[in-house]
Amino acid sequence: MGYKKGARAERELMELLWNRGYAVVRSAGSGNTYAPDVIAIREGAVLAFECKAWKKKEVYIPSHQMEKMLEWRKRSGAELYLAWKYPYRGWFFIPIYLLTKRGSNYVVTLEEAEVLSHSLL
Fold it and tell me: Which domain holds residue 72?
């Protein structure tokens, strides 16, 4: 995902969450840090999102990045989701632990996302 496209998707997600009553923050340099891209808090509930704006039929997260995100999840106690924005279909919110390990990546297909996605918004 290109930086501009990804940043635009992250800002869109932030606005959606804000409009639904969450306090939100975007992590600077996301992808290069331990923190997920967007963090949302409402009444003590903490949700965190790794965002992807991707028009292919699968999304991949490298194992080294997944390991960092899972450690962040463990330390924070937040619910961690892959937030996948697919063109003309909107957002899918997949719990990060439901992605499947394939080689040196974790992956979810569009078909899986349709089944596994939580209706957060």
Answer: 3-116
Report whether pLDDT(6) > 90: no
Q: The whole model's pTM is what?
A: 0.87
Which domain CATH number covers 21?
A: 3.40.1350.10
Measured CA to CA, the distance from residue 55 to residue 52 in angstroms comes to 9
SS3 state of residue 58: strand
For residue 30, indicate whether it is catalytic: yes
Catalytic residue among 27, 30, 117, 119: 30
Q: Is 70 among the domain residues?
A: yes
The gap from C-alpha 94 to its chain's centroid, in whole angstroms, comes to 8
In 3D space, the residue among 85, 10, 3, 9 whose CA is nearest the CA of residue 40 turns out to be 10
